[in-house]
Amino acid sequence: MKDLTNGSIVRHILAMAPPIMAGMVSIMICQLVDLYFVSGLGDAAVAGVAAAGNAGFLINALMQVLGVGTVALIAHAVGRKDRSDANLIFNQAVALSMLFGLLTLVAGAALSRLYMRSIAADQATIEAGTTYLLWFMPALALEFVMQVIASALRATGIVRPAMLVRVVAVVINIALAPVLISGWGTGYALGVAGAGLASSIAVAIGALMLLAYFRKVERYVGFNATQWRPQPRQLKRILNVGLPAGGEFAMMFILMAVVYYVLRDFGAAAQAGFGIGQRMLGLIQMPALAVALAAGPIAGQNMGAANGARVRETFVKAALTTTVIMIGFMILAQLKPELLLAGFSNDRETMAIAYLFLRIISLNMVAQGLIFTCSSMFQGLGNTKPVLLSSATRVLTYSLPAIWLSTWPGFRMEYVWYLSIAATTLQAVLSLWLLRREFRKRLALPPKEKAAEPASPEPVAPLAREPA
How far apart are the C-alpha atoms of 401 and 421, rounded to whole Å? Predict the structure, then answer.
């Protein structure tokens, strides 16, 4: 366990952000690898895999329910030196992860084709997306347990093991993708099914590795099957923090679904171009998102320790860092988008759409970085309801106008991107205002009240350095 209530905040952020980013980038690279090798199968396959990947936002919503609730509550427990509560929260989250994983497999089998029919441009895209989803669902189901373990480690200041596991998983996926998709070395090509299968195999191996590490090395929190029986009070604590954050990802699913819906009249090339551009945009935003996510546990531990000044300082330094990062990538996307998108498709129309999308939507990046930072701070504070409110505002100010604009006779897809800039900027402003209000409410305790907060009598294990 690493104590984040002392020492340089910037040093803590810079130590935690790279491993967090490496883990997230590895997930994104898996998706980009799938798109890269699937691109040889045609625009319908690319559009199908990209659209099917959007369903991951919905699954990520459930993952965030577990991840955010686990990080916030365990970080608070660590800050107030309450080890027993940290273990109870962890094991209740493990039980929820098993339930959510099972529900994911059932929903994937029942609803994949229905989902693809609602957004795809043609029958070939529907078939490609449905096939990919069915083979990719085991990977998403396994991600729940990995999310809980990685979140527990991050709450205690340890991020490197989860990163290493992610890197190994992406290497395995990269190795398997051409073999299973294109039949390299075997002569038996599975097409889009191979893309989903490669990801599922890689995630399964990664899950086993992370589980083995956790059982062997982690000492502050651990598995205790006697605590897996659902305890309504503890589940309510996790869900109170996690559900609004999960709702934020559900809102992202709605936003992406709206984009695919309004683009379907432009054909598979438009949906494929958007899918490629969106994946690359997500990749280049990862450094700023990693900084924001690193700030969450720092704020959480200091919130548990009743150190309001340090919580505020965490936000200021994280926001400045994400802004600098996002400005750098925005300039690159404006001047040389071809450096970021080269090689994903040989179709000139598809790539022209991807270049246009990235050049316009990159103007969002500074605002998006501030949204990332505010969201992570709300998680650290233990109140994620404002995150859901700001996300819902973005959905309303974007989705309804986008659908309305798509009915215009002279509708152009660029209108969708410019509308996104306005909606994202509005969300950033609202998030900053809500966070300022939350600071005033939660960090304004007088010194006597802070000092009166009871400490847990639980014995605490001696602090140790993060394992390599």
Answer: 13
